[in-house]
Specification:
Blueprint lengths: L3 H21 L1 H25 L5 H25 L10 H20 L13 H14 L7 H4 L7 H7 L17 E4 L2 E5 L4 E4 L4 H13 L7 H23 L3 H5 L1 H14 L1 H7 L5 H23 L5 H18 L2 H14 L6 H26 L2 H10 L8 H22 L4 H31 L11 H9 L1 H17 L5 H16 L6 H9 L2 H24 L1 H20 L5 H5 L6 H8 L7 E4 L5 H5 L2 H6 L4 E2 L6 H9 L4 E5 L7 E4 L7 E11 L2 E3 L10 E3 L2 E13 L5 E3 L6 E4 L2 E4 L2 E3 L3 E6 L7 E9 L2 E4 L1 E3 L6 E5 L5 E11 L7 E6 L2
Parallel strand pairs: 4-5, 4-6
Antiparallel strand pairs: 1-2, 2-3, 6-11, 7-8, 8-11, 9-10, 11-12, 12-22, 13-14, 14-21, 15-21, 16-20, 16-22, 17-18, 17-21, 19-20
Helix pairs in contact: 1-2, 1-3, 2-3, 2-8, 2-14, 4-9, 4-11, 5-8, 9-11, 9-13, 9-24, 11-24, 11-25, 13-14, 13-16, 14-15, 14-16, 15-16, 15-22, 16-18, 19-21, 19-22, 20-21, 21-24, 24-25
């Protein structure tokens, strides 16, 4: 039944929240319920993936067990924690709840139909296709049967040569790990076994697979809606907690409003709207970042106030951050930065800090091990490309050992730093503030330099600041930088690790230049910085309004709020009517792709027309293999591969991006001559997408699809010289009781006709003739060169004609192939 597991997950989260409400408070209990449920689903999915059992019944059993364990754990926690007095419900809390619900509904409504993008290419298309492959097979690594040598008539050596596989030398760490590239986003892990591996972290495709098993293929990307909803709730709660952590009572009184402003800014920001509707890992990573920060601050506040649940909140915070590391490689760098900052603040809220550090280090270490085992050496190449770390090539075992050694070193360093003299320990927060301030100042200087530099909105090297200004306006950007500066100067010691991480994120965002294609590459640069700046801006705006209320009174504060909020939120709204936001750029219909590939049998070989645009081969090969289980050759085919498959009786299909006028065609190839084909299916592929000119802002929508045509190659081999070979069961030659008759064919001048017979077949007397209309011209036989070969000479200029061969045999007439070749 569709949606049963989703309903059970929601019921589990609400049940946990209800059980812990009078122990932790409503907000923290809801956070524990949602975070615990999402972490449980992620853990079950990753465990079943590693066991190669991510299939319907194991998933149902695993999730039911995890949900039951969560509820039992909530019962146990409830018994051990003391009850607290819940605040009375007031009109203010009711209004806050209504505002949050309305904003969440509006935000979800804008993102209710996430992109079902299926075409290949690294990241977005591969994530969906890998998710569908996992849902179909239960395992991560696809097996290319063509490369494996399991397809009739297609030698493995020829396929490996087509993919340019070079056998790694003995003892190389690349052997059996990465021996080549299949297509963008897919690496060849073991060419001899035909085993491929997706080149990224795999928690996101696991969520897509789980959603497909519950809702079906067409709705497999619905977790994007959940990820944004969690991000919105966490942004509200994080901004609210930051406001409550301040010393200003006027700001504490307005904490709920600060959270509402942060939620509204995230819900209505055009860049976030586009990113959150696109199938990229930044969506899940953002939810992990915001949830981890909120739960960590709640744990610290609970410890300072003497409330219960410190270890539970801090542990969930560390695990949420580690889930981000399971999602995206850059989160490993974020985890290192955060862990280093946590080491330097051992005195404030020590229990929450200790639990957070331990769970963060342990969870991130497991994420790195998972990445090394499933994505090596992509993990190290990504570190080189994104963080300029020297490229490393350790073996898998060495990389895992280094990971555990680094994790142990961090935990041992924590034990040592906790024994520092008080005077040295007091210097650590100052050091964090200084370094964070320097990083923020550097990021601001780089941004200001870019602001006054000549910018080309349509250029392929746009600056990050230009993208943020164009989509969000100058006010939230200015408020975000100033808010972070205020936090660096005045934040409580318990907030310093997160302020330090936020400053590092902003610096990296400012330093990473060159947004080549705005609606694709912008997510690399702003996905982490955007929520950081929005939450900081919301907190600063609340602080300004509180200062105004303290000095001038509530009326001036209300007037300032009425001016500031529209000036912030209204300008970006002008971009919302842009149609690209509503059509889900790069959206594809799974049913359309299914209609293309359903005509290819499972034992067939699928090729892509090298005359068509590269997208037909480079972008449709991945869904053909991963989502639809077809044997796709992702590289341009070579003649001997096609000929071998046809000789062995393997069905060979060709996908073209266009129509030809005839039902029977020739597929020209400069390298191997034309092939005879017949049309199997035709259709129009609709893919509305935004037109991007030179990397600039999409101005209009275009149909990125077009006509497609699926052809089946006939069992005939044509050469560029005009010579050809016809095999049994070719549609261009008919077998009768008396012999063979072909349709009219272009016969080259001065050629000879060859008929190859079975080596141990019955003795036959065969005559050959040319038929042109009603006229027939008998051909003169030539001396045999072999016993199983019959030869005839063709006229000097035969022109198009049908070949007719009459056979009188002692048994049933059989033949191997009929060939026309130029005389040697």
């Amino acid at each position: 039944m569709a949606g049963v597991l989703t309903a059970l997950a929601l019921a589990t989260a609400l049940a946990v929240a209800a059980l812990l409400r009078d122990r932790l408070g409503s907000a923290c209990a809801l956070g524990v319920g949602l975070a615990g449920t999402c972490l449980a689903v992620s853990a079950v999915g990753m465990l079943l993936l590693d066991l190669q059992r991510l299939q319907p019944w194991p998933v149902r059993a695993g999730l039911l067990g995890a949900f039951a364990a969560l509820v039992l754990l909530a019962f146990t926690v409830r018994r051990r924690l003391p009850a607290i007095t819940l605040p009375l419900r007031t009109r203010h809390t009711v209004a806050t709840t209504i505002a949050v619900v309305v904003l969440l509904v509006c935000g979800v409504g804008l993102r209710l139909h996430p992109s079902p993008y299926l075409q290949g290419g690294q990241d977005q298309g591969i994530y969906v296709n890998v998710g569908h492959h996992i849902a179909r097979t239960g395992r991560l690594r696809p097996v290319d049967r063509v490369m494996q040598g399991a397809l009739r008539g297609v030698p493995q050596a020829d396929v490996l040569a087509a993919y340019r596989i070079k056998q790694p030398p003995p003892g190389s760490p690349l052997a059996g790990v990465r021996e080549g590239r299949w297509t963008a986003g897919l690496h060849i892990e073991d060419a001899a076994a035909g085993r491929l591996v997706p080149a990224f972290f795999h928690l996101m495709p696991v969520w897509f697979a789980l959603a497909e098993l519950d809702w079906g293929f067409a709705r497999s990307t619905w977790p994007l809606v959940l990820f944004w909803q969690l991000s919105g709730l966490a942004a509200f709660a994080l901004a609210r907690r930051l406001a409550l952590a301040g010393a200003d009572p006027h700001l504490q009184h307005r904490a709920d409003r600060v959270g509402i402003v942060a939620l509204a800014a995230l819900a209505l920001h055009p860049l976030d709207l586009w990113i959150s509707s696109f199938t990229v890992t930044e969506n899940l990573a953002r939810a992990c970042l915001l949830a981890a920060a909120w739960l960590s601050l709640e744990a610290g506040a609970a410890e300072r106030q003497g409330r219960a649940g410190v270890a539970l909140l801090a542990g969930l915070a560390g695990l949420c951050f580690a889930a981000g590391a399971f999602t995206r490689g850059s989160f490993v760098a974020h985890a290192i930065v955060l862990a280093g900052a946590l080491l330097l603040v051992p005195r404030d809220a020590p229990r929450a800090r200790r639990v957070l550090l331990r769970t963060l280090v342990a969870g991130t270490a497991l994420a790195v091990v998972q990445a090394v085992l499933h994505s090596w050496p992509y993990f190290f190449s990504a570190a080189t490309n994104h963080f300029h770390v020297p490229r490393l090539t350790p073996s898998t075992g060495e990389a895992v050992a280094w990971t555990f050694a680094a994790a142990a070193a961090l935990l041992l360093a924590d034990l040592g730093l906790r024994r520092l003299p008080p005077r040295l320990a007091a210097l650590a927060p100052r050091l964090l503030r200084i370094v964070a301030g320097l990083m923020l100042a550097a990021g601001a200087l780089v941004s200001l330099r870019d602001l006054f530099a000549p910018a080309n909105e349509l250029g392929p090297d746009q600056q990050v600041l230009a993208v943020l200004l164009r989509h969000g306006g100058p006010l939230p950007l200015l408020l975000g930088f100033l808010g972070l500066a205020v936090a660096v100067r005045r934040a409580h010691a318990s907030l310093l690790p997160w302020v330090f991480l936020a400053s590092a994120i902003v610096l990296l965002t400012a330093l990473k230049q060159g947004v080549r294609y705005e609606f694709y590459y912008a997510r690399y640069f702003v996905a982490d910085a955007l929520p950081v700046l929005l939450v900081a801006a919301a907190c600063l705006s609340g602080h300004l309004i509180a200062r105004l209320a303290a000095r001038r009174g509530p009326r001036w504060a209300a007037a300032g709020f009425a001016v500031l909020l529209p000036a912030w939120l209204v300008p970006p709204l002008r971009l919302l009517p842009r149609e690209v936001y509503w059509t889900r750029d790069l959206a594809d219909d799974p049913a359309q792709l299914a209609s293309i590939f359903e005509h290819v049998p499972e034992d067939g070989l699928l090729l892509f027309d090298d005359r068509a645009p590269g997208r037909w081969r480079g972008l449709l090969a991945a869904p053909a293999l991963l989502s639809f289980g077809r044997n796709a050759l992702a590289v341009p085919p070579r003649g001997h591969i096609v000929e071998g498959a046809l000789k062995a009786g393997t069905p060979v299909f060709l996908l073209s991006g266009g129509w030809e006028p005839d039902e029977r065609q020739r597929w020209p190839s400069a390298a191997h001559g034309p092939w005879r084909t017949r049309v199997v299916a035709r259709g129009i592929y609709r893919a509305v997408r935004a037109e991007t000119v030179a990397g600039g802002v999409p101005g209009r929508l275009v149909d990125g699809g077009g006509p497609w045509e699926l052809q089946q190659l006939d069992r005939s081999i044509w050469r560029s010289s005009g010579a050809f070979s016809l095999y049994p069961e070719s549609v261009f030659v008919a077998t009768t009781a008396a012999g063979l008759v072909t349709e009219p064919l272009p016969l080259p001048a001065g050629a000879r006709l060859e008929l190859w017979l079975p080596a141990r077949g019955p003795a036959c007397e065969v005559t050959a003739a040319l038929r042109t209309g009603d006229a027939a011209h008998e051909l003169a036989p030539l001396p045999r060169e072999r016993d199983d070969q019959l030869l005839w000479s063709l006229p000097a200029a035969p022109g198009p004609a049908a070949l007719a061969l009459t056979a009188r045999c002692e048994g049933a007439f059989a033949w191997r192939w009929l060939s026309v070749r130029r005389s040697e």
